[in-house]
Structures are given as structure tokens and as C-alpha cells.
Amino acid sequence: MSKVFVLDTKSQPLNPIHPGRARMLLSQGKAAVFRRFPFTLILKEEVLNPDVEPLRIKIDPGAKTTGLALVNDKTGEVVWVAELKHRGFQIRDALTSRRQLRRARRSRKTRYRKPRFLNRTRPPGWLPPSLNSRVANILTWVKRLSLLCQINAISQELVRFDTQKMENPEISGIAYQQGTLVGYEVREFLLSKWNRTCAYCGAKDIPLEIEHIQPRSKGGSNRVSNLCLACVPCNREKGNQDIKDFLEGKPELMKRILAQAKRPLADAAAVNATRWNLYFNLKKLGLPVEVGTGGRTKYNRTIRGLEKTHYWDAACVGESTPEQLITIGIKPLLITAKGHGTRQQCRTNKFGFPIRYCSRTKFHKGFQTGDIVKASVTSGKKVGTYVGRVATRATGSFNISTADGLVQGISHKYCKHIHKKDGYAYVV
User: Fold this and answer.
1) Alpha helices for 149-203 (secondary structure H)
2) What residues contact residue 197 under an 8 Å CB cut-off, 6+ apart?
3) What is the pLDDT of residues 277-303, one digit of tens each?
4) What's the mean pLDDT in 34-61?
5) Cross-strand partners of 10
């Protein structure tokens, strides 16, 4: 696993330590658990003149998942890694649903509602809530890690996907005035879109080629919606056949490939829209911010022999990446943004009419929805130990979301706090 963060008696960060050293400090009573996620200890005895080594936090932003890594530039040691899953698309869907319900309710009224244009002004640098949440999540964790270790620099991958180039690789001249881009972007986007697998046979970890779903010889284009990935045997077997002929006996596979090919460029657009906003917000923290390209990240990761993951991409961002990265025994912390509940005062049916009242009381029996608890049930039908996020009720009968699924009807008497609600869920 990653190293354990340590704070002194005044809550000032010290050098992260090995988990074995942390267990020894706890068993000897020299330290106590400060927080569970990320795991942090606080010492009970004062440390005089500590020699704290600075670390660099490295960020690989993504539309759905962002990679985070803490690297010691001097030694090349990767101290801590994590993957942060965003909830931007959930926010988008929730806002769409709310907008539809409001429009339906307002259309039933006959009186005229004068538009209020002052409510529509947007401040400079405004982002939609679905995109702003991605930036806010990253900034939250940069600030949180700054309190747990000594950070002296930030590295961010300032990637840019050219959606025009993806849709029409032949675009040029007056129709395209943003400079010449390499074809690398299209391949990288396809690798992400098709999960680095062959579209036809599902093979992984082998060389993949860019394949035209509708062959060029039969009118197919170079648009990204007509491209997929295929292994060498499948690409040769298909040749210039139409996909309907090639997959004549596999209608379900053909349907899935055609649907996947037409998937919109929402992920690429989200990264483009937030990259500069994130950069300027990181600059406001007062630390030097290094930026790197996606090509540099892939080159650094390839020559160091690391697998393709979000957290290893983060560790390889920028020119500051040490020649040798020490990655032995590193296990990522998987973080999922969950939000802080809802401000709705009632629940509605599919027509937008209120059907249920929402309690405004957050705490029930000392717990609130979102706390991570450990429930040791000793009697009844649900005997066992359950760890996960809790959903509270006024009756004291809680639901716990564990790694194995949802467990309902657990009494608050069996629950014990592990980590207070902070808007995130964790898997170690």
C-alpha cells in the first residue's frame, strides 16, 4: 500500500512513513489515528527539528477519473497514489431532470411569466455545475493533501483533445484556424473510447490498429465516428468488407460496435472546458505549477515500463519526472465523489408533483448519511460485520452500502464510526 501520512503534536506534516512503521507506532502507543482516508497518524510526543522532505503533487485530469500522485523529486519515490472518480455526468442528468420537471409545471399555468434576465448573467470564468464539480474535486484534494504532507510544487497534464480534428481529419485552411495537430490525439482518444481492446474479439494487451468500420473503398470516412480499434488478425480478416457482412452471424456485437462508435465526444469536451480553469485555480494556491502534454506523459510512462492507469499517468506528468520511479508495493486509494446530499424539500413523481416530504434533520442517532461505519451485528438474520457508507433514518434502522452490495435494516446500536462524512467514498 502507499505510505502513511504523519502529523506532529501541532498538526504539522512530517515525512510519510512505511505502513509497518505506522503499525509499530500505534502498538507502542506513540501515535493515534488522525483520519482513516487517507490514513494519517498524529504523534503523541513532540519531534524536535524534523527534517521534512518536500513532495510534488502530480495530476492527470480526466472527464470521469483523475489520477493523483505524490512524488519525491529527489529520490524518485512515489509516496502515494489515488484515482478520483467524478460525478459530473450525474450532476448533468440531475439538472436535466430538474429542468424538465420545472418546465412541465410552468407550462400548466396560464398566466404569463416575465423573463428575468438579471438571473441569467454569468461571472467571468463561469463553468456549468457538472464541469465545475470536476475542478472543485481536484482542488479539494490538493488542499487536503497540502495539510498532510509538505508539498512544494504541482504538475498538471494540460491535455487538449481537438474535437474538430477528430470529426474531420482533413479539416484545414479557413475552416480550421487553430494550428496543425499531430494524429496522435485521434489514436489516444480511440484507445480511451474502446478501452484498449479489439472491438471485434475483445483481445487486450496486444498491438491494436485503427480500423475503418465502413471501409474507405466503400465510401467510409476518417471521422472518429467511423473508427475503432482492431487486433491484427481481425483487421486482416475483415479487410474491406462491410461490417454488416463481416458480423452477419453476430447481430448483437454489430449493434454494440455501431452504438459505441456513435458515442459523442463528451469526455474530450469536458477535459477541454476545464483544463485552463483548473490551471488558474492551482496557480492561486501559491505553488509553482508545471504543465505537461499527453505525449510527454505517455513517453515517460512507456520508458519506465509502467502500465496504463490513471495514477501512473499522474506520476509521469511533466518534464520533472525523475529518471527512476520507485513504485514497489504502491497500492492506489480509490476515491469516488458522492456529493453532500440534496437540497430538495420533497420528492416528486415522474410528472413533477410532490409525493414525499424530505426530512431536514441531518443527524439521526449520532450518524448522518454519508458516514463510513463498521457494523458488527451479533444477533438476528443479518449476523456479520459490514463496512461502508451509511444511509440513516429517523427510526434508527440504517442501510449500509458495502463493497458486496447494499445491506438494509441495520440497527444504529451495532454501528461505529470509522470516517465522518466528507463527500467521498473510499476503497483501499
Assistant:
1) 163-167, 184-193
2) 203, 204, 208, 229
3) 999 999 999 999 999 888 889 889 999
4) 94
5) none
CB contact set of 235 (below 8 Å; sequence gap of 6+): 209, 211
Strand partners, 154: 57, 289
Task: State how far the Cα of 197 lies from the Cα of 354, in Å rounded to an integer.
Answer: 46
Measured CA to CA, the distance from residue 250 to residue 12 in angstroms comes to: 61
Q: C-alpha grid cell for residue 62?
A: 480526466
C-alpha cell at 18: 512505511
Q: How far is CA 337 from CA 76, 90, 143, 208, 304, in A?
A: 29, 10, 16, 33, 30
Helices (H), 284-309: 294-303
C-beta of residue 397 within 8 angstroms of C-beta of residue 389: no
Burial profile 172-190: b = 16 or more Cβ within 10 angstroms, e = fewer: eeeeeeeeebeeebbebbb
Taking CA atoms, 72 is separated from 115, 153, 330, in Å, by 55, 11, 14
pTM value surpassing 0.85:
no
In tens, the pLDDT along 53-110 reads 999 999 999 889 999 999 999 999 999 999 999 999 899 999 998 888 877 777 776 6
Identity (one letter) of the amino acid at 62?
G
